[in-house]
Amino acid sequence: MASSALTHPRPDAAAVLQLLKPITWFPPMWAFGCGLVSSGVAAADIGWLVLICGVLLSGPLVCGTSQVVNDWFDQDVDRINEPQRPIPSGRVPGRWGLIIAWMMTALSLVVGTVLGPWGFLATAIGLLLAWAYSAPPIRLKQNGWWGNAACGACYEGLPWFTGALVATGALPDWRILSLAALYSVGAHGIMTLNDFKSIEGDRQMGVRTIPVQIGPERAALLACVVMAVPQVIVVDLLLQWGALLMAGVVAALILVQLACMKRMLSDPRGLAPWYNATGVTLFVLGMLASAFAVRSILGVTP
Predict the structure, then answer these.
(1) Residue 53 sits in a domain of what CATH number?
(2) What's the rounded Cα separation, in Å, for the pair 35 and 33?
(3) In the chain, pLDDT over 70 holds for what percent of residues?
(4) Is the pLDDT of residue 114 over 80?
(5) 213 CB burial (10 A radius; 0-12, 13-18, 19+)
(6) Whole domain around residue 163: which residue ranges?
(7) 143 pairs with which residues across the strands?
(8) Total domain count for the chain?
(9) For residue 162, is pLDDT > 70?
């Protein structure tokens, strides 16, 4: 396999960087940070090597690996939707895409050892989901319900859990786990909106995303409900836990999101990218507010 790739010129650094899609690294890195914040452990007590490796794993390494794997196994779809992407355009030629995916996987596992046994396990689970999402025979993305669930878990829940886990060295408090799970469910809706950009190619290649299965209008409405309901539950939990200020902050962010959702629903296909740049920002700000709330509830001062 390697010799086959080496018969082609090596891809340049710019093409490889585009293949890794740095813009997608932010959500899991942010979620990892929320896990650290919610744990209440000071950065100096965690150790800077662990912090740096955790951030690298949640963003460039594990998330970057998932992007390369997805582009390799999605190249037929990309030839229809995005022929300018590195693999279908030939800027990452031959089997270099697959080799880079395996190299990134190996590097992620090596770095994961720095986080200890549980951190390494979380890294391995993230990588397994990354490959299962795109690669046959499992290829979770063939069905949007399963694929989006895997993405939501990898983008929000797993890195949040990992951040709290490596900070405390123990299973996180149930309130931390509850928030991580709820925001993972909300991320399912974000992933549905992300599928709007590739409807035509997905339909032609038999990729049954939610917009393909139920149509753009109903998919957009479903995405809004899936994003909003978990956040409303978060507000209710924060109120029950006595975190009144942060409950108010998250509630205010939800109200602004609802206004953005109303606009997006008027033209789902045209405005889904706009919502991903606006409403999702409000969503992740609510995550951070919730993390600070749990930190306070657990009796830790910033």
Answers:
(1) 1.10.600
(2) 5
(3) 96
(4) yes
(5) middle
(6) 13-297
(7) 208
(8) 1
(9) yes
Those residues with Cβ within 8 angstroms of residue 1's Cβ, 6 or more apart along the chain or in another chain: 95, 98, 99
- Give the rounded percent of residues in the chain with a pLDDT score beyond 90: 73
CA distance 261 to 192: 14
Q: Would you place residue 7 in the very low, low, confident or very high pLDDT band (cuts 50, 70, 90)?
A: low
Tokens matching residue 131: 């490959």
CB 110 within 8 A of CB 125: no
Residue 211 inside a domain? The answer is yes
Contacts of 205 (CB under 8 A, 6+ apart): 76, 77, 80
Q: Residue 270 falls within a domain, yes or no? A: yes
Q: What confidence tens digit (pLDDT) does each residue in 185-244 have?
A: 999 999 999 888 888 888 888 889 999 999 999 999 999 999 999 999 999 999 999 999
Tell me which amino acid residue 97 is: G
Beta bridge partners of 53: none
Answer yes or no: is 179 within a domain. Answer: yes
Contact by Cβ (8 Å): 164, 176: yes
Q: Are 1 and 98 in contact (CB under 8 A)?
A: yes
Place of tokens 């990892």: 32
| The pLDDT value given to residue 20 | 94
Question: Six-digit token pair at 250?
Answer: 């998250």
The CA-CA-CA angle for residues 254, 187, 172, to 5°, reads 95
CB 146 within 8 A of CB 140: yes
One-letter amino acid of 136: P
Report how far residue 125's alpha carbon sits from residue 169's, in angstroms, rounded to the nearest whole number: 18
In a domain, 3, yes or no: no
Q: Exposed (0-12), middle (13-18) or buried (19+): which is 266, by Cβ within 10 Å?
A: exposed
If 0-12 CB within 10 Å is exposed, 13-18 middle and 19+ buried, where does residue 239 land?
middle
Rounded mean pLDDT of the chain? Answer: 91
